[in-house]
Amino acid sequence: MADVARAAGVSHQTVSRVINGSPNIRPSTRERVESAIRELGYRPNTAARALVTRRSSTIGIISTGSGLYGPNSIHRTIEDAARSAGWFAGSVSLATVTASTLTDAIDHLLRQAVEGIVMIAGQVEALELVSHQDFGVPFVVVEGDLSKATNVVGVDQQAGAYAATAHLVELGHTRIAHVRGPRSWTEADARETGWRDALADSGLAPGTLLHGDWSARSGYAAGRTLVADTDTTAVFVANDQMAIGLLRAYHEGGRPAPRHVSVVGFDDTPEAEYLQPPLTTVRQDFVEVGRRAIAFLDAGIKGVEPHLERLVSPDVILRASTARPFRPEATA
Amino acid sequence: MADVARAAGVSHQTVSRVINGSPNIRPSTRERVESAIRELGYRPNTAARALVTRRSSTIGIISTGSGLYGPNSIHRTIEDAARSAGWFAGSVSLATVTASTLTDAIDHLLRQAVEGIVMIAGQVEALELVSHQDFGVPFVVVEGDLSKATNVVGVDQQAGAYAATAHLVELGHTRIAHVRGPRSWTEADARETGWRDALADSGLAPGTLLHGDWSARSGYAAGRTLVADTDTTAVFVANDQMAIGLLRAYHEGGRPAPRHVSVVGFDDTPEAEYLQPPLTTVRQDFVEVGRRAIAFLDAGIKGVEPHLERLVSPDVILRASTARPFRPEATA
DNA sequence: TTAAATGGTGCGCAATGCCAA
DNA sequence: ATTGGCATTGCGCACCATTTA
């Protein structure tokens, strides 16, 4: 900075003013300083600035559930939203979520003096661990459960599940099963609740409930079980990956969708449209979720109230994996 | 730090020595200082340290091709490897790669005084843009082309494609088509070359070559074209997502795999095993790629020669989407 | 006594904010 | 209304002083 000041014939202080857009600078001076900056290829030293301002302009992102479509997509959009808002985003991806890995991750970020943390996690353990602590910086949880933590931003899972189930009901299905996500995920709980509520509101009894782990493998296992139950004519699966496995199990079992079973997924992964059959699923607007996560964090850091809804509403995307129930007696 | 020194009854210098693991500290003193650190919840100020050491301990990751399985997976493993190696990883995800978005991204990172940059990009434009410049910090390209840039780490795409094609040849296929990735991606080029070489080495003429864009949609389009050509009995598809679309097109066309066509993908996404039929594909060891990327960056930063292979060898995973060619005349 | 081990002092890193010119 | 000077931020290093074997 001293070099720039010398080149422009001003004090280093004036250079600082130009950089920070102070209003009280004569245009000619500003011009001189700016051209000196350009010529010298000068870049302000972030460390020095952080030291004196006590602001790092950095936020941390903790992401869990790597490999899954949803968390991954959200991670990207949050990074992007952070950069647009002028933050430097540092991230930590956790393969497994335990008290110790999570604590380490938070510690890693806090050491870097992040001004806020966004955690993408739906596991109950993670939520409980962070909700009882104060890290000294704003903390926003994405895809968690509103009832389990305070600063949550995400998609209205329950509404999405409700709409997906309602779609199956409208088609005329009366025995609608659900393959849910793992026990410890709040999203899995919310989707199950949506399914349950939609059935109750239609006067239907809950169908079979099976547990998966989000993987195609577990969806396949669930499908193997369900395919034997010919009373069940529709399945709401908690994510697209499991739906892939389930579709295959039904196909193998000689009862392919949508003729023998209607299937709805959740996520709308890019390939959902090209599965056999194309998958009816629930689309979540991850870009909007990312934007809101950063908006909430921003508000927390600035200490103001954010005026934004916490939950984004998802949409059901209709495709060929759902149809009216097949009634052998009707066609016979 | 002054507080810690006071609490432990030593000078701030001694505290600094303890934190940085200086050998010349009496165990009892070290113990006193450490407990003071714990009690006060003291965390060294990264900015101050960076200022004086002129080292940020931060590296930058630029990732392109978000949404694709490969780049996403690699991103995670690099982040993880970086943290294990003591680096703070900041990342920038680029939705589109142009000279300006890439320059912005690099600038964003350089402003944070990153000590090195890892770029996950296979697009020729990106490689060309960075290979003619010196950013003042080590720069490693992941998944690029060894011939296009110097510091490249990745999977041996060509070998993987060669093995995949050779597998089809061994099964007895003689007309083997290829659905490649977009024109501007070096990985797409390498996979095409591997396909071409394997055919040439077997004395076979190249089959039909179609271009896709990595999406299931484009694979579906390619499949619609290929399914009409009954001479082609096998297709090597440059990634699993396109293979999904292609499988569907063949299914719709009444020529399902593996009976009428053998299909090999590339990536081994988690759901590949549960497609209809389960997809034979090429698995890449992303964890190893991430580790090596950081190892190379580390070496570059320390100014030493890395003693590691740049390319990781992939494996062909055999599943049900490939089989011996179907010969109507033989069964008739 | 010498040599090794340990602790203390003050400066400088690169920026910003306040106050004075 | 502009511009400059001085103090300040938290830490590490060079250097010096002191204790211990």
UniProtKB/TrEMBL annotation, chains A, B:
The keyword Transcription applies. CDD domains: HTH_LacI, PBP1_LacI. Gene3D superfamilies: 3.40.50.2300, lambda repressor-like DNA-binding domains. It comes from the Bacteria. GO terms for molecular function: DNA-binding transcription factor activity; transcription cis-regulatory region binding. SUPFAM superfamilies: lambda repressor-like DNA-binding domains, Periplasmic binding protein-like I. The keyword Cell wall biogenesis/degradation does not apply. SMART domains: HTH_LACI. This is LacI family DNA-binding transcriptional regulator. The lineage of its organism: Bacteria, Bacillati, Actinomycetota, Actinomycetes, Propionibacteriales.
